[in-house]
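Q: what sequence does this backbone want?
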């Protein structure tokens, strides 16, 4: 179709947007088109395009199977996947399986029918080419960046995600995840499988090659996978093990090659490619476009080799996106790469050298022109902000181009070579810049200091006109540079002094031709080659021809009626002179006119001629004309390009079409004839391509008619507003439809300014900065000129901003202007009569009735009358705001404000003008506005307006009444003194509100600010957790609330101690010296807890080092004294508040309730340690009586709450020797009681000693049982008649223990060979009598309560007879089993309430007669001790005969209950 062309730039940031098949056909996705390029080792040629995508192409892949290698697949960001036949350039099938932009697609190298695609939502779709079926999977909810099918296993697909995850899925098992490969921490840009189907070829660290536990290579089949990520690493993964085996960090290479535009930011893109047949060689891209070959068998710096080192400038200058390789039949292996630098490069994989470079274009081709001096030197102005200069005649490199970007920074919309000076190229840009490049030097361009306000459309070199006077240097003619831009101005620049100011030629035209009116905006100009005449095209379609140098107007061509887009004079070399004055012109009306101006030029008329008939008319195009060029090789042969997407060659003299070229997709913008080949023409357009084609080889002669016109009409029907909107600036958003002849356009004027374009050429640069894998969708671009078009750009899009039309302030008079034409004309007569005659027409009063609208054109009174009528109309309609404005305009400001106040229509604007009516009015208005704002719940605004009239306290009250405390406080603190009482009130109110809502910390801050620290501490403590209590205690202490601080610190410490956080508890108390005694208490509790750790289950959060176990023979009292002295400085020598007596006095106030079985063990520990603390303080105070009582209470707490084993262990810790009179061996302390306290203290000591003996007695008995009577021990648990087990258990439970508890005690202690203590203390007869009486009292109480309960039920009628009978025996059994203490008593059913009450009073009298010490300091159960001693006597000779006899006597006397009688029967018979 065409010999050479520059295609559009490949799309950026796509993981696979290019691929090459086995026959050397490269497919590249660019915008929404796929370009097909034939490649060989020496050259390349664009072979065609695949057109059909509506969205940007995001992926492309060939089928690599023999016989099917011409089939390819592509994906786009509109979710579609298309199959193509690259031989016929036709679409085979289209899938719309994705709902989101597709980010990756690949054709399986194993299965010729399987194509896999993935989208940005994470959906993976399998497409089956032969059946047309699809299957969707959703392996991970992440954004897919790339995917690649395994070359060895058809069902295995590797997917790379945006977050750095790589997942291997099995598409044969519904996308089941086989491995998740974690290691990268940023986007996965590329994945490549090893060409070998095993994992034994690479260098790896020894730790990576661990044994496979006997799995052979055949059983565990895997393949290496390479990945490239934005995290700057390439990783090699073992898919058999599911882990990485190698990581390669990208090398930092020194920047090579030519400079690049620093204005374009680029990020890293790391592409990897594993060439076929090279299992140990991997190619990857690098930071700035370099390509690197990795040798995977080596390490260190020898691991990689750089491509293109044989000569400078071979490498890409920007990041590389895609690579693919092909093995050609000539045994050359080529690698093809695409890059951000818009070059496609071919590399020889053997030598790593660049074979050729194909430049591509990243924007519309706006301008192309051959140099008149340098043969074959073609300049291109492109929308990617660059100029390309292509030497089209070189034989070695057919794409010998250079790019120029310095100083441009905008789309290049116009170019013009200097007619004589070689290499001097002028350019104009989209942002109005004009400059001149010397293309043979590396210098930046010269930029004119005179900028256009709009896009530059045309540049032309011509002779200078006033006021510039150059003169001729050395006989060479001098030239000025003329530029025409979108604002309609033509400037003349001095090329030798561009820093000087350019001149506007309109001034010269007006002066020379004595024109007073404004000239039509200019849209194009063309100098006749001989420099004598210039033709200027205008926006109104007129073409003016002026004579140089004075620019005298020769003629005006009134032929076109739409904006002139292009003008061209016929060349004057080797052609008949009658052709030299032909001027061709093209506009937006699709017809090309050619005028012969020879007579006007050769014989200038006195006054300008007006031409209305053309010399030749060239009809055929169906859309606006955008460019044209005369053939330098023929006479009167012209080529034109149009928005209809075609280029047309004409024989002008015959008015005949010669050839039509339809190779572009979309409209054309520029054209030029080859200066060396008469049959070759070059065209460029909106499809980002430059194409070279031959006139003689075109299939068509005429431009397309039917199809284009049908499309045009269809488009107009589909979008009727389009024409209206784009009357001056054609174009539409959205991607071009799949038409070979390009985008059809709407009728319009000269191609719109480049700024109007929805920026297709900006596309790449915009795309480059996005993080998505796809560029933004392409949009149709419009091209050119006209100030009108430019103006339309500044207006908002009416479709986007459909705003409601504002209401008229004068609706009645406005409506009167929409009456029939006759009435409107009559109004003019009436108004003239009123103005110019003394007596107005009868019944005519301007401003009233039918003539209300004339009030606007008559005097002020008429206007006021009109206002009154308009006001009435507004009031009826409820438009009070409009009434207010009318009153305001007429000067009745106070009335306007009054009305607005009554209607609640006050606003900020009215308030701002209120001061004009005086202070009082303004004051009232503000107050009214405040009320209005409060009704609208705009309290802050209302308060601010109150401030404006100095009503500060009212503003504060307003805020407070609506609970805006924060703002009220801020206002008071900003405007009033610090001691203002209202401030404290605000803080207190806010605090109480916050407290109710549960915001305790915020409430506390308010209380602190208000000076109520006590309340602050209390409110924080309400939360009652440890951190709140600690904070509250600190706050109270800092604020001087000592008592509260102590109380809170104590509460916090107790909670911490209960949770076994001993260190935290001590820290809380340590902040206050007055709490020393409580610290001592916690110290004792911690020591006791640590010492009892074996028998008390606990989970300590924190503890102090001094709690570590001490020597076993040292009592716990000694350890406590030592720790107190070391850690707290408390000893016998302490004085002041640290003295023992003072501390003891403080501790006496601490609560210690009566022990019950319901108290938790941790709490029991704290209460017991409290008494232990008091005992040690009593010891330090030499108060022996108090010492023994407190020790007794410490032990009693565990015993009375049912913790027998803990009590036994505590006794052992307190008295290691078993003697309660020896309080300390370390400090040589024995107890001596004074006479005053003799009785109580001795009773306490005896009780304590008795319990110590009891624990030792049980230890002795159970140790014996463990050795000698294991069988009896087991028997005693089941047979009450042969063993005292049940009775003992019952007794011990009554006394607060259990067998298991005793067992644990016994097993923990040593064994005794003999009793080793005086057992007679356990056999106290007074205590035995007391215990028997107490038991009898308990029994009678139980029977009385049962009797009362039974009687109450009977009275209530709650039981039927059967229930009563059932209940009776149960009660009897209960009474029998409990048994009275007297053996001869009557049966239970003969007992009465009276007899039981008499017995109860007798027993209570007996108890009252007993000494207090016996009741206050009880002994162990005497009957229980008797039974244990008798059992022990059977297995041990340590119990003497006299002791046994005493025991039996006591049993006979006091062991009267049935269970005891049963247990003691064998000892007493």
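A:
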């Amino acid at each position: 179709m065409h010999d050479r062309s520059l295609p559009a730039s490949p799309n950026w940031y796509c993981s696979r947007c290019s691929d090459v098949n086995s026959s050397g056909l490269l497919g590249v996705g660019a915008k929404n088109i796929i370009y097909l390029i034939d490649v060989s080792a020496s050259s390349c040629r664009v072979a065609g395009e695949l057109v059909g995508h509506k969205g940007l192409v995001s992926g492309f892949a060939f089928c690599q199977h023999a016989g099917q290698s011409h089939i390819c697949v592509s994906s786009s960001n509109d979710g579609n996947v298309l199959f193509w036949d690259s031989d016929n350039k036709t679409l085979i099938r289209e899938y719309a399986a994705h709902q989101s932009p597709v980010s990756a697609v690949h054709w399986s190298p194993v299965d010729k029918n399987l194509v896999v695609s993935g989208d940005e939502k994470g959906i993976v779709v399998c497409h089956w080419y032969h059946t047309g079926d699809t299957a969707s999977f959703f392996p991970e909810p992440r954004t897919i960046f790339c995917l690649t099918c395994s070359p060895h296993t058809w069902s295995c697909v590797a997917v790379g995600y945006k977050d750095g995850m790589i997942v291997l899925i099995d598409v044969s098992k519904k996308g089941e995840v086989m491995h998740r490969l974690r290691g990268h921490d940023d986007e996965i840009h590329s994945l490549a499988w090893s060409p070998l189907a095993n994992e034994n070829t690479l260098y790896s660290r020894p730790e990576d090659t661990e044994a496979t536990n006997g799995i052979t290579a055949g059983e565990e089949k895997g393949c290496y996978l390479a990945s490239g990520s934005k995290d700057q690493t390439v990783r090699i993964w073992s898919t058999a093990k599911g882990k990485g085996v190698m990581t390669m960090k990208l090398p930092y290479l020194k920047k090579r090659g030519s400079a690049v535009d620093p204005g374009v930011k680029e990020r890293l893109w790391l592409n990897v490619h594993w060439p076929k047949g090279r299992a140990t060689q991997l190619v990857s891209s690098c930071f700035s476009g370099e390509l690197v070959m990795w040798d995977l068998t080596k390490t260190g710096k020898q691991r990689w080799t750089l491509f293109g080192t044989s000569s400078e400038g071979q490498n890409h200058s920007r990041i590389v996106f895609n690579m693919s390789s092909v093995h050609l039949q000539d045994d050359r292996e080529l690698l093809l790469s695409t890059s951000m630098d818009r070059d496609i490069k071919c590399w020889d994989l053997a030598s790593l050298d660049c074979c050729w470079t194909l430049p591509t274009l990243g924007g519309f081709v706006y301008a192309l022109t051959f140099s008149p001096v340098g043969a074959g030197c073609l300049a291109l102005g492109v929308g990617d902000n660059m100029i390309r200069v292509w030497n089209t005649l070189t034989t070695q490199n057919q794409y010998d181009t250079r790019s120029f970007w310095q100083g441009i920074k905008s789309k290049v919309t116009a170019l013009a070579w200097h007619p004589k000076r070689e290499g001097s190229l002028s350019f104009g840009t989209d942002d109005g810049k004009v400059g001149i490049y010397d293309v043979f030097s590396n210098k930046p361009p010269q930029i004119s200091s005179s900028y256009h306000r709009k896009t530059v459309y045309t540049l032309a070199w011509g002779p200078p006109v006033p006021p510039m006077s150059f003169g001729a240097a050395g006989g060479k003619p001098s030239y000025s540079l003329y530029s025409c831009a979108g604002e309609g101005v033509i400037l003349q620049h001095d090329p030798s002094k561009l820093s000087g100011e350019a001149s506007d030629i309109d001034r010269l035209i007006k002066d020379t031709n004595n024109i007073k009116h404004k000239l039509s905006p200019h849209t194009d100009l063309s100098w006749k080659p001989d420099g004598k005449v210039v033709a200027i095209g205008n926006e109104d379609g007129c073409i003016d021809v002026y004579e140089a140098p004075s620019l005298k107007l020769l003629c005006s061509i009134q032929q076109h009626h739409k904006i002139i887009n292009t003008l061209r004079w016929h060349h004057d070399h080797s052609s008949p002179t009658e052709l030299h004055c032909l001027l061709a012109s093209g506009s937006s009306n699709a017809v090309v006119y050619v005028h012969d101006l020879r007579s006007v030029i050769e014989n200038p008329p006195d006054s300008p001629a007006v031409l209305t008939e053309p010399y030749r008319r060239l009809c055929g195009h169906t859309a606006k004309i955008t460019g044209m060029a005369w053939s330098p090789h023929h006479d009167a042969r012209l080529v034109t390009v149009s928005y209809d997407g075609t280029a047309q060659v004409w024989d002008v003299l015959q008015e005949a079409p010669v050839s039509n070229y339809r190779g572009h997709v979309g409209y054309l913008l520029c054209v030029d004839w080859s200066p060396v080949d008469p049959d070759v023409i070059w065209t460029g357009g909106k499809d980002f391509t430059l194409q070279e084609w031959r006139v003689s080889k075109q299939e068509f002669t005429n431009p397309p008619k039917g199809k284009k016109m049908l499309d045009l009409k269809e488009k107009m029907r589909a979008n009727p507003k389009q024409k209206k909107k784009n009357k001056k600036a054609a174009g539409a958003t959205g991607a071009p439809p799949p038409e070979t002849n390009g985008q059809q356009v709407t009728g319009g004027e000269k191609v719109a300014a480049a700024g109007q374009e929805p920026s297709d050429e900006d596309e790449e640069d915009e795309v480059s900065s996005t993080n998505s894998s796809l560029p933004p969708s392409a949009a149709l671009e419009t091209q050119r000129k006209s100030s009108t078009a430019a103006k339309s750009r500044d207006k908002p899009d009416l479709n986007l901003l459909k705003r409601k039309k504002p209401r008229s302030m004068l609706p009645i008079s406005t409506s009167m202007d929409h009456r029939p034409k006759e009435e409107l004309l009559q109004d003019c007569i009436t108004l003239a009569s009123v103005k110019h005659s003394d007596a107005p027409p009868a019944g005519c009063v301007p401003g009233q009735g039918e003539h209300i609208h004339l009030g606007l054109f008559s005097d002020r009174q008429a206007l006021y009358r009109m206002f009154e009528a308009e006001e009435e109309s507004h009031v009826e309609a409820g438009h009070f705001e409009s009434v207010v404005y009318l009153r305001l305009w007429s000067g009745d400001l106070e009335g306007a404000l009054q009305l607005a106040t009554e209607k609640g229509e006050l606003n900020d604007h009215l308030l701002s003008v209120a001061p004009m009516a005086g202070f009082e009015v303004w004051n009232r208005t503000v107050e009214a506005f405040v009320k209005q704002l409060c009704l609208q719940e705009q309290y802050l605004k209302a308060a601010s307006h109150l401030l404006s009239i100095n009503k500060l306290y009212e503003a504060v009250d307003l805020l407070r009444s609506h609970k805006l405390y924060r703002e009220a406080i801020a206002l008071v603190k900003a405007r009033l003194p610090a001691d203002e009482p209202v401030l404290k009130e605000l803080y207190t109110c806010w605090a109480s509100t916050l407290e109710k809502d549960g915001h305790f910390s915020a409430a506390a801050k308010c209380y602190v600010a208000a000076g109520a620290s006590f309340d602050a501490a209390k409110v924080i403590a309400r939360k009652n957790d440890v951190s709140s209590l600690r904070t509250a205690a600190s706050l109270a202490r800092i604020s001087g609330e000592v008592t509260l601080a102590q109380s809170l610190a104590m509460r916090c410490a107790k909670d911490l101690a209960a949770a076994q956080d001993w260190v935290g508890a001590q820290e809380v108390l340590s902040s206050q010296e007055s709490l020393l005694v409580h610290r001592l208490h916690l110290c004792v509790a911690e020591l006791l807890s640590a010492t009892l750790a074996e028998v008390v289950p606990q989970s300590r959060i924190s503890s102090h080092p001094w709690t570590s176990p001490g020597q076993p023979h040292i009592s716990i009292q000694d350890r406590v004294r030592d720790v107190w002295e070391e850690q707290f400085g408390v000893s016998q020598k302490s004085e002041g508040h640290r003295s023992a007596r003072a501390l003891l006095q403080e501790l006496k106030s601490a609560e210690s309730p009566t022990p019950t079985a319901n108290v938790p063990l941790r709490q029991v520990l704290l209460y017991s340690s409290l008494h232990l603390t008091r005992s040690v303080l009593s010891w330090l105070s030499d108060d022996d009586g108090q010492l023994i009582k407190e020790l007794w209470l410490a032990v009693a707490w565990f015993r009375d709450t049912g913790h027998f084993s803990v009590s036994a262990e505590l006794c052992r810790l307190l008295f290691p020797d078993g003697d309660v009179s020896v309080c300390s061996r370390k400090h040589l302390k024995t107890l001596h009681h004074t006479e005053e306290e003799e009785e109580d203290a001795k009773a306490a000591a005896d009780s304590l000693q008795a319990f110590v003996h009891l624990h030792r007695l049980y230890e002795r008995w159970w140790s014996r049982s463990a050795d000698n009577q294991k069988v009896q021990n087991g028997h005693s648990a089941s047979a009450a008649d042969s063993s005292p087990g049940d009775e003992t258990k019952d007794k011990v439970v009554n006394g607060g223990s259990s067998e298991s508890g005793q067992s644990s005690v016994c097993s923990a202690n040593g064994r005794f060979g003999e009793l080793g203590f005086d057992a007679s203390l356990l056999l106290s007869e007074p205590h035995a009598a007391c215990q028997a009486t107490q038991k009898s009292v308990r029994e009678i109480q139980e029977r009385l309560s049962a009797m009362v309960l039974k009687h109450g039920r009977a009275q209530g009628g709650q039981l039927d007879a059967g229930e009563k009978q059932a209940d009776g025996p149960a009660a009897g059994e209960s009474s029998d089993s409990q048994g009275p203490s007297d053996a001869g008593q009557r049966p239970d059913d003969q007992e009465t309430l009276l007899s039981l009450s008499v017995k109860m009073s007798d027993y209570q009298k007996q108890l009252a007669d007993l000494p207090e010490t016996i009741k206050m300091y009880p002994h162990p159960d005497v009957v229980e001790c008797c039974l244990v001693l008798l059992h022990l006597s059977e297995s041990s000779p340590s119990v003497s005969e006299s002791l046994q006899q005493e025991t039996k006597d006591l049993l006979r006397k006091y062991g009267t209950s049935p269970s005891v009688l049963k247990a003691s029967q064998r000892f007493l018979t």
